[in-house]
Amino acid sequence: MRLWAVASNTFKETIRNRVLVNILLFAIALILISLVVGEWSLGHQSKVIKDFGLAAMSLFGLLIAIFIGIRLMVQEMEQRTVYLILSKPIRRWEFVLGKYLGLACTLALNVLLMSVTLWAVVLVQEGRIDFGLAPAILLIYMEIGLIVAFALLFSTFTSPTLSALFTLIIFVIGHTTSFLRDFILLYPDKPLLWLFKAIYTVMPNLENLNIKMAAVQHLATPPHAVLFGFLYGLGYIAFVLILTVMVFEKKDLK
Amino acid sequence: MTYRRFNAVLTALLVMLALGMHGLQRALDAHRSLRFVDRTPVFLPNGKLLRWMSMGYSGLVGDWLWMRSVLYYGRRAIDDENPYYTFAEKRNTLEYEMRTVRRDAPEFFRNPRISNVLPPGLFAFQSRGLVEDIYPLLDRVTTVDPHFIFPYIFGGLYILMDTGDLDDAEALLKKGLRQNPDSWQIPFYLGWISWAYRGDPARSREYMIQAVGTPGCASFVYDLLGGVTREANQEAVTRSYLRGILESTDNPEIRKRIESVLKKLESADAAPK
Amino acid sequence: MPKTVIQIEGLTKIYKGELGQKPVIGIEALDLDVREGEVFAFLGPNGAGKTTTIKLMTRLLFPTKGNILIMGLPLTSRDAMRRVGYLPEQPNLYGYLTGGEFLDFIARIFDLPSDRRKRRIPEVLGLVGLSDQAGRAIRTFSRGMMQRLGLAQALINDPDLLILDEPMSALDPIGRKDFRDIILGLKKAGKTLFFSSHILSDAELVADRIGILKKGRLVQTGRLDDLMGSRTGTIEVTFIPNKGRPSKSALQSYDFETQGRKILVRLEREDDLPSLLRGITRAGAKLVSVIPQRKSLEDIFMAEIGR
After folding, report:
1. Which end of chain B is more exposed for a tag (fewer CB within 10 A), N or C?
2. Under an 8 A CB cutoff, do A179 and B39 touch?
3. How many C-beta atoms surround the C-beta of residue C89 within 10 A?
4. What is the ipTM of this complex?
5. What is the pTM of this model?
């Protein structure tokens, strides 16, 4: 019950957060604008809306992670509300998990809103609702969840500015590791290959959660690609949350 | 539960998760390398915007775009060095995947003698349809960094030999010529295209004159100009062209192809007509 | 023999220094007992370590050395924390919740079942005088109301031990009086109270025992009555002399001062009182007051801290 108390409290806190609402509106605006941004893709007019819309959602996730995810912990500590809670018979891991789940629920709602907007836009453009986008959206949600988990982790032990920076770096690394993998495959004779391989293994590969391409073009993705991607995302989120708990358990709350 | 035990449980969980995710990653990667036909959309704003966005770092941004173009091409072109291609071949999925790709060879060799010899040896057209976005990519590279010569040649020659996108190649080279009037290589390759693909010796000659007129032009171009003017022996001219290209390129794949074709041409020439 | 509700032994907290800075000692070798039903006031100047000690007691900080037992149980025991109520210093509460929602949230952290929550929330609001504020958003609360709500959440689980960090520091005199009354009421109900303060007068009025903390060390501890009663100070005698002229000879031996028409004499020893009174009567002067001065808490405090 304690966990859900924290989660629902966090949900109430974040759902009416002005910054979140603004970023959401921004994302929705982007999705709507995509109707006009035809020439940005390399000549493939018809899929640009979907590409753009899904990309807007992914970007939304990053911004949310940085602005809300970091603030989640930091605000509790600055406002000293965390003292009230942790001095009571609640375990610290319940608190961390509760906070995360509360935000995850808010994010789910936001992603749903954006999805509806995207489907509406696609309906206008193509005349039908493209449900094939759903697995891509699910994985985007996992991606957002993972970035937010990282933001939460960093904000437990560094300043808000550094946390934001680190989260951004993780996002960039996450999307470029597959680049690294191509590099490894295409040029197996390069020196320091072991280093690149090590980096690739450790860093979160956000491309696993990126099946936007396949979803947009209705390529037959093997069913396990979605499932594995989902499990990967879930696993990595759990990993980061456990790390956060371990850091938080022994943290002095000055 | 004591703190120590709690910590131990968490650490154990971390290890299990790490192993699990590593396994998932490998499974996902294995499948990805099976797929040779990869149509990840390349999502970039137009060249002018990119150039504006690079704000003083256009050389760097141009380099990055160029690298992306090369990797894009290297990932998709049919090439024995391309691991994605060799994986797909090994697993026999190549044919299945290629069915979604347009692959009919273009028909534009106006010169019948050339069209008998050159296409099978020199022009592969096998990556046709696989690298559809390469010309737009190169267009952006050259808008951001217009004086970077190699992309023009890459698009105007190498890719052309693999895909046969003649109009795109010519457009790229012409753009390069506009931006770099001092280059002798660009008009040289435009001349080659006019000669071999378009079958237009007059146009070819115009380009050669322009090439010869720029400083630093290689000497073989002069000889070539003479040959084109005389219209003497089409095979001879073609051979000279090819030798010229051979001289100016380091790319081993291209060199291999040119050398084998040259051999064929020379033996055909030597044979009694 | 009353139970020991708080037992602290050898408590030490050393903060590791930030990059390149020396470690800072928060608390050093603290030994402290608080018995059931006591009101213990924890005093000290700012930065002495009062809040550190309280945070160590509430598991917000982890000790470098030493032991704390709450009701005989270690701090890791959830049973111990279930019976404790804590009010931090100048708490900020979730502005977007109403008073009632906030208390419900806290009650759920305590795992109180919903029927008990429903009963307890209005009870506790009534106790702190916020009965009609349950539906108001906390961001509209005044400082005093927030402090009361803070006390309310500390009471929601009907704790046996209350730990309050500077509970009255931010309040106006009326608020402080209300708080003092609530504290005395809780004491009557048999609760144990441990609070820190730097307002000595409040402590003086409610505490049974005090402890004085200076730079991380406990320098004085004991029952208030003992500390103050044992050191009686002077006796002040005020009178109005006859004919407005004090007789020099009579007053020679005394420490006195003139206050308008009145003369104030400070007697060091109680034994001197009868002779002075006789002198005043004989001189026909008018006796205004005889007031024995107990040493104030402030005196005791300044003595310890000043050293």
Report:
1. C
2. no
3. 18
4. 0.80
5. 0.73
